[in-house]
Amino acid sequence: MELNWGTLLVQVFGGLAIFLYGMSIMTDGLKLVAGSRLKNFLARMTSNRWKGLLAGASITSVIQSSSVTTVLVVGFVSAGLMSFENTLGIILGANIGTTITAQIIAFKITKAALVFVIIGFLLNSLSKQKQIRHTGLVILGLGFVFLGMSLMSKGTSPLRDYEPFVNLMQGLDNPFWGILIGALFTATVQSSSATTGIVIVMASQGLLNIEGGIALIIGANIGTCVTAFLSALGKPKVAMQVAVAHILFNILGAMLWLAFIPSLATLTENISPNNLPRQIANAHTIFNILNTFIFIGFTKQIAKLVYKIVPVEVVHEGETVKLERYYLKDISMALEMVSNNIENLSKVLINKLNDASKIALTGKKGQIKSLANFYSTIESCQVEILEYLGELQKKRLTNLQMQEVRKHVETINVIKMISILISQEMVEATELRLNKKFNVSAPTVKIIQKIYNDAIQSLETAFKHYHNGSDIDEENFEKTRSAFNKKLNKAHKQLISRLVTDDTKRISIFKFETEMYEIASRIIELSYRISNTANSY
User: Fold this and answer.
1) Which of 96, 131, 161, 502 has a CB 3.0–4.6 Å from the CB of 57, allowing a cystine?
2) Residue 402 and residue 454 in one domain
3) Higher-confidence residue: 172 or 491?
4) Helices (H), 397-503
């Protein structure tokens, strides 16, 4: 039999391209429909591996993209929000979630592909409600998936009577070759879903038997590890940890099942007799579920092995993490990373303010350097955050996400302003005290320290509102500010009254104390600005 290879290849690879494009659209739509709820759900499910397993399976089954789940996981570990060991349950759960794709495409509804495309297009184009438009995007993507399946099915149908190809497929009875071909093809097209789709198409055309199909999808599980490994190159080390864990789970799982493919084939034939595509989809599901429950008991051992293969420095409280472009794949995660960095900087700022007030009042010359260098540390972090937020704004942001960007910009700018107060104005006040060689009296130290404690408390409260996203009680805040101003005015009056003393250093002391009070007053105003930012956005 003569084949028109040009037409066949165009239909198969054109169908594959449409299939992959449909998967991409569907994933984007599902992410928009779900919003940040998936991220919040995942953040709550980190206490143990079983909760992680449920979270990974649930999220991946919803968004149909284990790579998106991986980005979320990498982000949480990088930010110190969960341990790498707890992510292993999520990674295993993601393997279960991806089986939903095979179950969907095993349904023989490719004839309705254009109906899905029409409905999805109309909902996405005509509706004014975002949720409906995003749902339309999901349906449109699903339509393209089925359309791609239909084209691949038409393209491969002539191969049923092409003897060399039939002989090649019979060679897949050797599971080693089936696994190898499935792994290589998946690594090439960068999608295990695409491999699964083609396997199901070929099975529906009678080109594959059940054992050959199972070997190919097991190979696809290994091939997708290559995809994960390549995507982790040049990314944060924790991304490579996740990729290595994925590789270990899937390769060990394939080796475990190599001798049991005939048994798995028998089981699926009994579950879905006379329905080869459904048998392959079921085999894919059973394979991943059983592997997951086998390996879930060995997460500690796997984690230790991964730590040795890819060692990573632990992020401690108060430390910022590098804002990698990798996290820009998921807007909500990128914003979370920025928020975490600002939260860590706020803790550093509060600690430095506590130290600075004590150094200014009673410190020695050798301690000034740590204050003077503080601004450059904050400035470098500010530049990184602003550049990252600039990159983020190039993406399609919702109004809520844009408001969050503005809130982050305003807050990091305020942190920079307070760092200037510490590194310049408090340093100048301290140098004045040291150069003029006077000591601040114990009663005055006590008064100024109380004022600074109030200012720092006000700043801590403002940061708390910012990080929690809660509205500030303006009436209560005004009472606090009024009480602070009364203390400040009383301190000023006492200071002015001391100008009439005979102390030769009274003018220098006046300048020093006035500067200290002015800095505290500025901190109060800037803390109000942060609180107002939390309310405004």
Assistant:
1) 96
2) yes
3) 491
4) 399-420, 427-435, 442-468, 474-497
Residue 499: burial class (beta carbons within 10 Å; 0-12, 13-18, 19+): exposed
For tokens 């949720």, the residue is 131
Q: 371 and 231 share a domain?
A: no
Report the C-alpha gap between 104 and 139 in whole angstroms: 13
Last-in-domain residue among 281, 309, 337:
309
SS (H, E, C) 231-299: HHCCCCHHHHHHHHHHHHHHHHHHHHHHHHHHHHHHHHHHHCCCCHHHHHHHHHHHHHHHHHHHHHHHH
User: CA torsion 303→304→310→316, rounded to 10°?
Assistant: 80
| DSSP letters for 178-211 | HHHHHHHHHHHHT-HHHHHHHHHHHHHTT---HH
The pair of structure tokens assigned to 445 is 């130290």
**Among all chains, which residue has been given the structure tokens 């001798």?**
259
Give me 47's structure tokens.
């206490």
> Which residue range is the domain that position 500 belongs to?
325-536
Give the count of domains, the chain. Answer: 2
How far is Cα 529 from Cα 522, in angstroms, rounded to an integer? 10
- Regarding whether 171 and 37 lie in a shared domain, the answer is yes
**Residue recorded with tokens 């080796």:** 255
Taking each helix axis from N to C end, the angle separating 5-34 and 49-63, rounded to the nearest 10 degrees, works out to 120
In this structure, what CATH number is given to the domain that contains residue 431?
1.20.58.220
pTM above 0.85, yes or no: no
Q: Are residues 266 and 384 in the same domain?
A: no
- Verify that 90 and 131 share a domain, yes or no: yes
Question: Does the residue 410 lie in any domain?
Answer: yes
Task: Round to whole Å and give the CA distance between 69 and 64.
Answer: 9
Tell me, what DSSP letter sits at residue 346?
Answer: H
Buried/exposed 213-228: b ≥16 CB within 10 Å, e otherwise: bbbbbbbbbbbbbbbb
Q: Which of 215, 190, 199 is nearest to 153 (CA)?
A: 199
Q: Is residue 319 part of a domain?
A: no
Residue 466: per-residue pLDDT = 82
Burial class (CB in 10 A: 0-12, 13-18, 19+), 314: exposed
Rounded (5°) CA angle 445-451-455 = 135
Look over the chain and give the mean of its residue pLDDT values, rounded to a whole number. Answer: 81
* Domain presence at residue 280: yes
In a domain, 245, yes or no: yes
Token pair for 69: 């789940």
Task: Give the chain's radius of gyration (CA, Å).
Answer: 31
* In a shared domain, residues 200 and 155: yes
Q: How confident is the model at residue 228 (pLDDT cuts 50, 70, 90)?
A: low
304 with 329, same domain: the answer is no
